Amino acid sequence: PHCELAGVKDDNCTHMTCERCCGRWCYFCGKKEEDLDDDDEYPNLSEHNNEWESNINHCPMYLYKVHVFDNRWPADDGDSLEFFHRCQILRNLYDILESIGEESLDELNDRFGIIDACGYSIDDIKNEENRILIKYT
Questions:
Q1: So what's the pLDDT on residue 39?
Q2: What percentage of the chain exceeds 90 in pLDDT?
Q3: Distance (Å, whole) CA 120 – CA 21
Q4: How far is the C-alpha of 83 from the C-alpha of 108, rounded, in Å?
Q5: Measured between alpha carbons, how far is 70 from 13 in angstroms, rounded to an integer?
Q6: Is 69 found in the same domain as 28?
Q7: Does the chain have fewer CB atoms within 10 Å around its N or its C terminus?
Q8: 47 with 68, same domain?
Q9: What is the pTM of this model?
Q10: Average pLDDT of the chain?
Q11: What DSSP element (H or E) covers 24?
Q12: How far apart are CA 13 and CA 20, in angstroms?
């Protein structure tokens, strides 16, 4: 988010630090540390993880812990990361669907096979449950 260098999530926490510019951000929500919604005058990633189970503006520190709160999530860290990426992809595809409309997306798919090749169907993209990162009940 700071210098546009792409990062790769590992099996550790959701705190990310850029190797180039040392900028810090939350992998889960993508917000820069300085843009976090915290009451503190000096927001930090650790505070951002507090009470994530009840505060939709906060994020979990570890993806594998979400399954305790939301049973759609796997308990394994690697599988949790895959589930997270699936939700993010479907959210991004839905944003495109909303932006250009279903007819235009169908035309692009007919011409280039972009949806057929991505592994998700239009129904997957339209299904709101697939785009919810954490179910707060």
A1: 64
A2: 68
A3: 35
A4: 26
A5: 18
A6: no
A7: C
A8: no
A9: 0.86
A10: 90
A11: strand 24-26
A12: 19
Range of the domain at 92: 62-137
Do residue 137 and residue 71 come from a single domain? yes
64-114 pLDDT, tens digit each: 999 999 999 999 999 999 999 999 999 999 999 999 999 999 999 999 999
Long-range contact set of residues 66-74: C-beta below 8 Å, sequence gap at least 24: 66/134, 69/134, 70/134, 70/135, 72/135
Residue type for 117, please?
Answer: A
| Statement to judge: residues 8 and 22 lie in one domain | yes
123 and 66 co-located in one domain: yes
Tokens representing 61?
């520190």
- Boundary (domain end) residue, out of 30, 61, 92: 61
**Are residues 100 and 131 in contact, defined by beta-carbon separation less than 8 angstroms?**
no
Residues 80 and 126 in one domain: yes
Domains in the chain, number: 2
Rg of the Cα atoms in the chain: 17
